[in-house]
Design brief:
Number of strands: 6
Number of domains: 2
Helix content: 40-55%
Radius of gyration: 21 Å
Strand content: 5-15%
Low-confidence stretches: 1-11, 151-158
Shape: elongated
Structural class: alpha/beta
Distance between the termini: 24 Å
CATH superfamily of the largest domain: P-loop containing nucleotide triphosphate hydrolases
Length: 288
């Protein structure tokens, strides 16, 4: 996958960046949602620039899919750089009890000014930003206590900005997910493809699956072998990532005419199982 040379929907991304820039004067702070499995790759540096001087809270979402020990490492990392982060899971509700206290701390000075002006209880407004498929809409729906924003487990569902009132007296402004036009770091594009931030139809799914296999055989070989009932010998260096993909397809019985392995079906299954945590709690990136 030649990440350095591929451009991802530059017209759509330019529109989203314009929406974010236009919306900033309307909000008190920014909530940036990252994927806990890939905090580095899911952080779009453009968002940091666009946010200007607005206070910002980082939510490391999908925390229940990431390694608990690596989550703790990231928590330590963000603390060292004086950035508050909260690990959340929009499906289980993990971390949601920490969000409003963190917001009240972040905006303590503004809340005091509101109180002094007799505006105590005035609703705060936040802009919710993140890459596609990071869980922005699902986060908003949980904060609202009902389905307000359209949410699906695939990128590109939110098409425009929309205000949502939450049960906490907080207004959230949802925006489309924004990727940068090109990736200078090839590994960023690979991680985004593996986790589903880039539509599978844009890239070759077998190639993405092989990228995932290359990571799993290094990061979590025992979990990987156990899930797909393959031996450690099968993931030794003498076998390619495609060889392993074929072996998994064989184990799962994904056959087509003539006994040939359906590697495309195998690749889709592998990516789906990783994205839904069926292989195990696995992080693809580590601090530093």
């Amino acid at each position: 996958m030649q990440s350095k040379q591929i451009q991802w929907f530059p017209g759509h991304m330019a529109k989203t960046k314009r929406l974010i820039k236009e919306s900033l004067p309307l909000v008190d702070f920014v909530i940036e949602i990252l994927d806990a499995r890939i905090p580095y790759s899911s952080h779009n540096p453009d968002i940091e620039k666009l946010s200007e001087n607005k206070p910002r809270i980082i939510l490391l979402n999908k925390a229940s899919l990431a390694s608990p020990s690596v989550n703790r490492q990231w928590k330590t990392y963000y603390k060292k750089i004086n950035t508050d982060c909260i690990f959340t899971d929009c499906n289980t509700g993990e971390g949601f009890g920490e969000i409003m206290p963190a917001i009240n701390t972040l905006l303590a000075d503004k809340l005091v000014r509101y109180s002094e002006k007799g505006m105590s209880g005035k609703a705060l407004k936040a802009l919710v930003v993140g890459i596609p498929n990071s869980g922005k809409s699902t986060f908003i729906n949980r904060m609202a206590g009902s389905v307000k924003a359209k949410a699906e487990n695939r990128p590109g569902v939110t098409k425009d900005k929309q205000w949502v009132q939450t049960k906490h007296g907080l207004y959230l402004l949802d925006t489309p997910g924004v990727l940068w036009p090109k990736f200078d770091d090839r590994s960023v594009g690979e991680c985004l493809a593996i986790t589903g931030a880039i539509r599978d139809g844009v890239l070759d799914v077998e190639e993405i699956a092989c990228l995932l296999i290359a990571m799993l055989r290094k990061i979590a070989p025992d979990i990987f072998c156990q899930r797909y009932k393959i031996s450690n010998e099968n993931i030794s260096e003498k076998y390619s990532d495609y060889d392993i993909l074929t072996e998994i397809g064989k184990k799962r019985g994904f056959l087509i005419g003539g006994g040939e392995i359906n590697t495309e079906r195998t690749a889709l299954m592998l990516l789906d199982e990783f994205r839904n945590g069926k292989i195990g709690r696995i992080s693809l990136e580590f601090p530093g």
